[in-house]
Amino acid sequence: MSAARRRRPLPGWVRIPPLTIRARLTLTYTALFTVGGAALLVGLTTAFYRAVYRPLPADAIPSRLDPDHDHFIGLRDQIRDAAVSHLLRDSLLLLLVVVAVSALLGWWVAGRLLRPLAAITAAARRATGTTLHERLNLPGPQDELKQLGDTFDEMLERLDATFAAQRRFVANASHELRTPLTVTRTAVEVTTAKPRPTTAQWRTMAQDVTDSTQRAQRLIDALLVLACSEQRVTDVEDDDLADVTAEALDHIAARSAARGLHLETDLAPAPLRGNLALLDIAVTNLLENAVKYNHDGGLLRVTTGTVPMADDCDAHREWAQVSVSNAGPVLDPDHVEELFEPFERGVHTRRSTSATVPDGVGLGLSIVRAVALAHDGHAQVAARPEGGLTVTLRVPRAPDQHATGAAG
């Protein structure tokens, strides 16, 4: 018969409350002290018994016994038995008192030691989208609980940054989607408000509606690509980043030639394993941005290759990278990282009053960074002193084991 069958279930009215960590620590302290105290009590009592009941040495026994010898011997035995009995009773009472005191002290000490855990639990319970700015800042030495509190604070900081970025993203996406809808509504209202619209006016309205609809469609497509690229990579294949870049160059060849850009390429082999569809979108976005935000007749330099670098865990790995440089306006090196934020287009953002805003929704570099992160890589941007940018997409030649497991 198995142990599960031999074990009888407890009656329904018997409810054993779950023991907290503090209660378990207290019981552990009390049990250890009880075992130690009992062992000490047994040892002392045994030693006392041996000392008291040990036979007298031969030289201590008198050669001639007086008439009261038996009386003295009986009295000695009574005193000895009473002393041993009182010692054992007092020792047991003292052990019970010490165990009770140790249990109370253990409960207090466990509460003191676990106070940081209580603070972390309370912070986790009240954590919401509006309280992520709060931090524990646990005092004390750098022990395991202090490290746990600091890790919790770092997690709250990351969550706070993520929620803030999400709120900015939703606000910017709403604004960008509202713009083509406003243009469409204005074009329709202006045309229909006229008493007798002409055919040319109807055609103008239709063209405005078509243009704004296409802009909204491009924005929605870009948002969908961004959402997909922020997930872990799936359907990974072996390929060469140089071949992906060469195909993307074919897509922008006509636009590059129309603007008279000076194209320089150095497509060294860069084998990798990744999602080719996402990598193609990322490289194409890099090249389209380089053409879009360039001067007529400016520079367009594209290079690929493999570089050895250390990852976040200080492990040396081989990385495949593509780097795209273009000419353009001089940008502040301290703020170029902001171009990776959604809907950020530098001087061509929606907040700009420039009348020459290139066609785009400001998600190109955001998609590039998302694709890099999905492949456990990263994207870097640097301002060129003579104007323009150099953007580098770098991914490991083989995806991380965690990414591969998630993909499978």
Automatic annotation (TrEMBL):
It comes from the Bacteria. Gene3D superfamilies: 1.10.287.130, 6.10.340.10, Histidine kinase-like ATPase, C-terminal domain (3.30.565.10). GO terms for molecular function: kinase activity. It is found in: Cell membrane. The keyword S-adenosyl-L-methionine does not apply. The chain crosses the membrane at residues 25-49, 92-110. SMART domains: HAMP (SM00304), HATPase_c (SM00387), HisKA (SM00388). It is an enzyme of class 2 (transferase). Keywords: Kinase, Membrane, Phosphoprotein, Transferase, Transmembrane, Transmembrane helix, Two-component regulatory system. This is histidine kinase. It comes from Streptantibioticus silvisoli.
